[in-house]
Amino acid sequence: MLSLSLSQRRHLRELSPTRIRFPVLAACALFIGAPKLCLAGDHGPVGPLDLTRHWAGYLAVLIFFLAYFLAMAEEVTELRKSKPMVFAASAIWGLVAAVYVGSGMPEQAGEAFRASLLTYAELLLFILVSMTYLNAMEDLDVFEALRCWLLGKGYSYRQLFWLTGILAFMISSVCNNLTTALLMGAVVMALGKDCPRFVTLSCINIVVAANAGGSFSPFGDITTLLIWQKGKVPFVDFFHLLIPSIVNFALPAACMFPFLPRQRPAAVDKRIPIKTGGRPIIVLFLLTIVTAVGFENLLHLPPAAGMMAGLTYLKFYSFYLQKKTAPQTPDPDELVAQGEPIGEADEFDIFKKVSRLEWDTLLFFYGVMLSMGGLSFIGYLEDISEFLYADPDRTTFANILVGIASAFIDNGTIMLAVLSMDPHISQGQWLLVTLTAGVGGSLLAIGSAAGVGLLGQTKGYYSFGAHLKWGPVILLGYFASIGAHFLINRSYF
Fold first, then answer.
1. Region 436-465 average pLDDT
2. What span, in angstroms and rounded, lies between the C-alpha atoms of 55 and 377?
């Protein structure tokens, strides 16, 4: 948890003689010198404050939504999304800490902040290793070789529609959906430059497939990773979502298939071989995944610990590659003689791969996770949890609603909110919310990183309106996957 559990918080409230609730108009008086706010008896503070009706709570919510709006408008404002979110996290915790210091409870806010920071640190280290491996494979032309292999097979548009969709589904189970979508998007753009309908339908198919493929694997999506790291679903249980995920991808694809052209694009003979070291790094990446699973299941350590161990595999191998290729590297005098700038030598340096990480995205998640931790500590997520999950008969409806909301709000943010609420639900319901939060982003083009990435990559072919046109069949796949989950995994409810 990012703070005390809901049951602990409710118990503390029952012990408390009063609940601290203040209107916004009392802000200045309270901040300057009003009596201290604390849930305390004769022996000092005993629990967190309820600031959901306090001016600081209202201001924290306003700051969060303004920052989130600026983050979502990044394409328009050209303001990196991490900037407003990191500011929001700092401002929210600053407000919370100020109230707690003024109430004579300075330690509690600091402890809650450190708990939120620890959660983010585990996620950061996990993604850092994953992205570093992907950057290494990209530099060694692993993905480019795959793209050229597909271009040279001479498949028809209909065959390529299914092939790119299936590959997107499979690759996104171990890579993030944005990388997967951009890779497959490059393929369909190269093949369908003379057939806009093929590109449009294939891009929609890739977005749905990439989101569905990441929903049954702990490594495939931020939502499954968060669920796994929190221990809500064991590693092997995620794979019970494989069939529902396939249904989510295959049903809309089958509906779009008859509208594809029957022609074949011109075959391309170009071949790009994987550079030296590419194949061993693929093996090392798979070994890193096994290590992370082993650390979590056998040693009961966070998966991030196993991923960091896997990073050392890559670092040692990069050292080996550097020594192996060093004699082939031109010296500076030769580079100058050839008119090449010094430093252009093809050197495999692992620290350069780390420096190329998507730091804007990583800092964005810092802002989101720390902001969500602050709102949870204030008490808002408890109120939302009571509204959504207090009635066990409404749990399924709540989890379906979470999935639909993920089409408008980043699914990682949605899942963080659910985990911060920490509802007492069955394993089947945890699997359900994992599925819905993962695939719900496919309902709109802007609902996932995969869709947003393709909107920028394939301008003129794939658009918000084109995706929305096929929204009904995507929604059909969404509910069909939920039905498949209840049918196949009913023993978990």
1. 80
2. 15
